[in-house]
């Protein structure tokens, strides 16, 4: 059994006992101080005053056992309880982050889910060990091992081929869902059953486990979405709509989500925003969550996805670089005057 999983299980058994409560109270200040004193320079360089303020908000709103039981009771009252297929392409990720990503699914308040994983021919042996452990633990975990590397678009499509749920949610192999993520999605669906695409707010998760840089997004704005992918994570969409859109397209790796979302938003305007942070994007050095220019090629591919979207929509325009790095400016061409 992977050590991270075993230690988590031991802690789960102890944390709600009297001893566990005492240990949590004693260790909480040490854990906070320890996180701030991480030796890795990126933990210190990018820690801002705004992050400190956000930490206070995170602690204030953290789900405790009492709140979780209240949400579980509310879940039972939902008339509509669809199955949500969580799509996770996996490739050679560090064991700790993979375990935490999958555990965040297991910890969901709303339990009518399935986790559809496609391993993209990872060479690291721990990948199969971890995935098989979770598969043996719960039949809702479905795994497909690819014989050759297909890239994130190909792996995502293979994961989609395992899905049977009415809705599909996208989760990266090193990120995490908040415990109430799927609960909030299904709560909205019970109020707005017409919703076909749902997105939420998000934050960044440091290597030391700190929640930083929250992104509080506006409601659906089609013009804004043509300047950059502000929807990002978490996205949940009707699976039938994803199939109609043609799934993920190879050649857009790094911007495959933006390309898919551009096509999805051409098929529906039933788009809803949940103004809550329900997704945690891991700040691994070299990833787009750590620095915005970490993957320069992704912006080239995003530009191409945007250019093709404008062509499909019959909009004569040029896609230029925006004032802010990673954004675009749409310069429309004037219509020819008829004589």
**Helix-strand sequence:** HHHHHEHEHEHEEHEEHEHHEHEE
Instruction: Please give the number of β-strands.
Output: 11
What's the number of structural domains?
A: 2
What is the rounded distance between the termini?
77 Å
User: Helix count, per DSSP?
Assistant: 13
Mean pLDDT value: 87
**Proportion of helical residues:** 40-55%
Description:
42% of the residues lie in helices and 19% in strands. It is an alpha/beta fold. The chain has 2 domains: 1-37, no CATH class; 40-303, Spore Coat Polysaccharide Biosynthesis Protein SpsA, Chain A (Alpha-Beta Complex), CATH 3.90.550. The strands form 2 sheets. Strands 1, 2, 3, 4, 5, 6, 7, 8 and 9 form a 9-stranded mixed sheet that branches. A two-stranded antiparallel sheet has the order 10-11. The protein is globular and about 75 Å long. Residues 32-45 and 288-294 have low confidence and may be disordered.
Tags for this model:
339 residues, 13 helices, Spore Coat Polysaccharide Biosynthesis Protein SpsA, Chain A, alpha/beta, 2 domains, two-stranded antiparallel sheet, 9-stranded mixed beta sheet
């Amino acid at each position: 059994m992977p050590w991270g999983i075993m230690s988590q299980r031991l802690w789960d058994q102890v944390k709600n006992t009297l001893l566990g409560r005492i240990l949590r109270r004693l260790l909480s200040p040490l854990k906070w101080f320890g996180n701030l004193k991480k030796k890795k320079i990126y933990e210190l360089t990018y820690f801002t005053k705004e992050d400190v303020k956000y930490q206070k908000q995170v602690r204030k709103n953290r789900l405790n056992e009492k709140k979780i039981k209240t949400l579980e009771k509310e879940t039972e009252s939902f008339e509509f309880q669809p199955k949500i297929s969580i799509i996770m392409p996996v490739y050679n990720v560090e064991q700790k982050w993979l375990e935490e990503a999958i555990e965040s699914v297991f910890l969901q308040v709303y339990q009518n889910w399935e986790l559809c994983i496609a391993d993209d021919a990872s060479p690291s042996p721990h990948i199969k060990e971890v995935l098989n452990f979770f598969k043996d633990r719960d039949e809702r975990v479905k795994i497909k091992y690819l014989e050759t590397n297909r890239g994130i678009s190909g792996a995502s499509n293979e994961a989609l081929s395992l899905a049977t749920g009415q809705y599909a949610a996208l989760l990266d192999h090193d990120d995490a869902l908040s415990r109430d993520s799927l609960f909030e999605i299904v709560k909205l669906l019970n109020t707005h059953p017409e919703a076909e695409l749902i997105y939420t707010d998000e934050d960044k998760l440091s290597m030391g486990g700190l929640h930083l840089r929250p992104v509080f997004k506006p409601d659906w704005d089609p013009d804004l979405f043509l300047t950059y992918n502000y929807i990002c994570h978490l996205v949940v969409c009707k699976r039938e709509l994803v199939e109609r859109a043609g799934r993920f397209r190879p050649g857009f790796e790094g911007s495959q989500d933006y390309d898919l979302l551009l096509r999805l938003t051409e098929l529906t305007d039933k788009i809803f925003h949940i103004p809550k942070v329900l997704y945690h994007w891991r700040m691994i050095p070299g990833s787009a969550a750590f620095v915005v220019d970490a993957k320069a090629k992704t912006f080239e591919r995003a530009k191409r996805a945007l250019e093709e979207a404008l062509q499909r929509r019959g909009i004569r325009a040029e896609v230029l670089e925006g004032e802010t790095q990673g954004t675009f400016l749409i310069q429309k061409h004037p219509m020819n005057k008829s004589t």
